Amino acid sequence: MSKTTAGRFFEDYHIGQQIVHAVPRTVSGGERALYHALYPARTALYSSDDFARACGLPQSPVDDLIGFHIVFGKTVPDISLNAVANLGYAEGRFHAPVYPGDSLRSHSEVIGLKQNSNGKSGVVWVRTRGENQRGARVLDYVRWVMVRKRDPDATAPETVVPDLAAVVAPDTLVVPQGLNFSDHDFALSGEPHRWGDYAIGERIDHVDGVTVEEAEHMLATRLWQNTSKVHFDGTRRADGKRLIYGGHVISMARALSFNGLANAHMISAINAGSHANPCFSGDTIRAWSEVLDRAETRAPGVGALRLRLVASKGACDVLKTDDGKYHPDVLLDLDYWVLMPI
Amino acid sequence: MSKTTAGRFFEDYHIGQQIVHAVPRTVSGGERALYHALYPARTALYSSDDFARACGLPQSPVDDLIGFHIVFGKTVPDISLNAVANLGYAEGRFHAPVYPGDSLRSHSEVIGLKQNSNGKSGVVWVRTRGENQRGARVLDYVRWVMVRKRDPDATAPETVVPDLAAVVAPDTLVVPQGLNFSDHDFALSGEPHRWGDYAIGERIDHVDGVTVEEAEHMLATRLWQNTSKVHFDGTRRADGKRLIYGGHVISMARALSFNGLANAHMISAINAGSHANPCFSGDTIRAWSEVLDRAETRAPGVGALRLRLVASKGACDVLKTDDGKYHPDVLLDLDYWVLMPI
Amino acid sequence: MSKTTAGRFFEDYHIGQQIVHAVPRTVSGGERALYHALYPARTALYSSDDFARACGLPQSPVDDLIGFHIVFGKTVPDISLNAVANLGYAEGRFHAPVYPGDSLRSHSEVIGLKQNSNGKSGVVWVRTRGENQRGARVLDYVRWVMVRKRDPDATAPETVVPDLAAVVAPDTLVVPQGLNFSDHDFALSGEPHRWGDYAIGERIDHVDGVTVEEAEHMLATRLWQNTSKVHFDGTRRADGKRLIYGGHVISMARALSFNGLANAHMISAINAGSHANPCFSGDTIRAWSEVLDRAETRAPGVGALRLRLVASKGACDVLKTDDGKYHPDVLLDLDYWVLMPI
């Protein structure tokens, strides 16, 4: 009878379930300016209309991660309001850039379910897609979360674990229509390093650190209309700190990676991602990247680089400890493809 | 001879006085994006151009409260710079939505004066109206504030207490031209509850809490060009905290009320409002609503709901204590009309 | 071999060196809204399209200091990443207003070099110019910074100290095309004081104080894509505080100066400027101005006023102590020309 909703619990999901997420969103130069204020984002393609036009796009899109966060934010009330943990990402693809004036909406399909052995929770896999106002797919990705059961005695569903690709195959990467890095201006983009300059196995320390504040991550998380209570309600912990949205760490690390990867303009795919440890106000985020793979594309002058992006609290060279777990200072381990000039 | 102004004192006002407030303001997608970053605002009509068009509007307006805060902010240097207290609101009406590109200006008329018995201050009532660049009225409201006297020996003016409606009569509510909720999409708006689903006396706990930070309320208050010193100057209190603009609490509570009132799209009138107690950084704002009345409108598919919106520090079910005063944890008691799909 | 850069050191500069700064930037209403949220900026010309049109401009430009910060921010990775101190400004001129939709880029020429006697660092003078997407000059200025040497044994360059004007000559001030204050609306601008009302030697206390927060100055500094580590990394000081970008203090003080200088609409030139002492989170910034000079211009109704703008931590009437050094509470001493209605 209550008008408010407590969100879905594990037993509220079934395989094949289609969920239309609420609150479509029109983006403008306002979201873009805020992104530049919240993160040290300097990628030229997302900063200048002129630069974007020189790369074959009609104008400068908003950062790929703005699209990701908006599409993701809409899923929170339906997917992760009662999530115990955000377990992973796979098969993320960016299909079309988002431009000021575009309106985004999200839709998810439940593609996997597995009750935990303790009977109190289970894992839900969803494939989420974001579309623009013309119905064109902007991005899609699979995410899986651990969700509490409302009733521990509810019957366990049949276990369905989706078969997910470990890596988005490079020959299936979508290059935005018209993208052309043949005349790429390396002076304006900030670094001379081309796709060909990066070797598999190469590691790049992104040097800078950013100490994060409560006001900032709450501004960011609200901007994406992400409603997860843990990010906003300081009464849940004795020290008043709020758990920082994992996407805030992704954007911070990605922006920090400009120093060494200035020409890694566009995110083309997310292969995998782990929010290894929680991030709190006062933490100083640092990042390093490792080149995992390289691939050519059919677009003129455009190569693809597969990167591991690791964010940590303070400097942390160790990714995992001897027991195979993430080092307690590691915040993020993201495996993704970028597009850059050959 | 000083170039700076200390603001008006009680004896500087007279009945019928017309005050043109300075600094007209053009709004853009920037103000809208910031509103979404500052408050957990998710009302679909203010989020998506497509959704707004499906409701008969030319595009998505900015939140009604953006218009209110901008119009209000302009009055501060003229009305409340020396205010001891912001005592109340009445007869607030929203006449036309504000769209990106619109320019707002404010004008007030003094409609009431009453010196306090202590001779040191008095109450000033003003009727303020906001207009857009076409001279069309965007909103108007009456507000009364207690203002200090510059000279305690100044003669008291004749007492004039305006006769104000306790409630804006529902048949005088202005429905924006073209607004039509006949084809309202309840999946995209976020909740299935229609006007007809709300019963008078029904109470809705909006569940979520937001812990507020100094940086956030100062960003918000400056955005509305509100110059009241108490919001910005941390040297006035030993703990460095700044008094939070009451309008910040209104917007936070209104945004929190999405959970349970997702379809209460537009604010049509403000009947009354009290900033019951001051709000400070570190407070966790929660909110509940009570349905006070229901009315039909002539617009297709559009009903009006009269709501009491109460914001408190932490959970607080009690509105007033036995002595008839607001509970010390109550921050806001707002009585307003919204428009929603029948 | 490293992909990241540690920035230039003193021995990396030579007289006549031309540096194209990376990451061009398109501005929108988003940057303008953020400026209004970050600073108590109320100048009518930068707030309202209507007001700007009544002054002969096509629409409301973004604040002059937005242009300055963006052009300056681009120079940081090339000029001041290893700066020990930002020593001064001279010959700053604002050539054309910046409008939403404009794209800015920066270019610098090294015009002076002087190794310090300790052999560990030196002073570098650069003349930086900002251009818009049409190649039109938006602003230019000279700045000099003390930069560390990478190798203390590197040979000292020939000393070249540029001959800089102590003041931008008023007859060389650029008045934006079309600017006309003949029909200036003093009610809408906020104060009645004209150019003719200000006397040389007059001092204006701007009354208000703003206590600054970490989140705010980091949002601002990132918005200008300023990458200087000291503003963001809280691990560099035991108290976690970050050094606040000097430009944040300039914008805060300039916005505070509205109270008493509401009609000092446009900045036309920066004659000199010193960041006298560092500013940190928790400081309460106050400001006062002194009228240094007055000049006529050829534009209708437009006069020029030369002002000293002093910002301090808390109230501080003393600019310099007996030993000729800035009082430790003084943050900024800026000498600049503004355009205002005669």
Automatic annotation (TrEMBL), chains A, B, C:
Alphabetical list of InterPro entries matching this protein: HotDog_dom_sf (IPR029069), MC_hydratase (IPR048274), MCH/BMMD (IPR052342), Thiol_ester_hydratase_Rv0216 (IPR016790)
PANTHER family: BETA-METHYLMALYL-COA DEHYDRATASE, MONOAMINE OXIDASE-RELATED
Record organism: Roseinatronobacter monicus
Molecular function via GO: lyase activity
Membrane-spanning intervals of the chain: none
Name of the featured protein: L-erythro-3-methylmalyl-CoA dehydratase
CDD domains listed in its UniProt record: FkbR2 (cd03451)
